[in-house]
Amino acid sequence: MSNNLKNHNYYNKIIESMREIAEEEFRDYSQPLAINIDLGSLLDHSEEYLLNFITIVEKKSKDTLFLKTSIIFDNKIIACATAVWIKEND
Fold this sequence. Notes:
Blueprint: H1 9-26, E1 30-38, E2 52-60, E3 64-73, E4 76-87
Antiparallel strand pairs: 1-4, 2-3, 3-4
């Protein structure tokens, strides 16, 4: 397993899912400040089947978002990620 998370499909899908929500909420450019990924039983599943990602806003302030992404397989949460996203100022 590579130590570079960008080499893992699940990481890229989590970031993509969170970025979509962050851009909708801020209507502007944003970036992750911190990300925590709980792999759970994710590594027991082939990444090609990881299609169901659900991201929700847990809390929002003027320039900060707390997001949670759940990865669902066979109607069960097999992994989740939480992150703090910040709005970029011009």
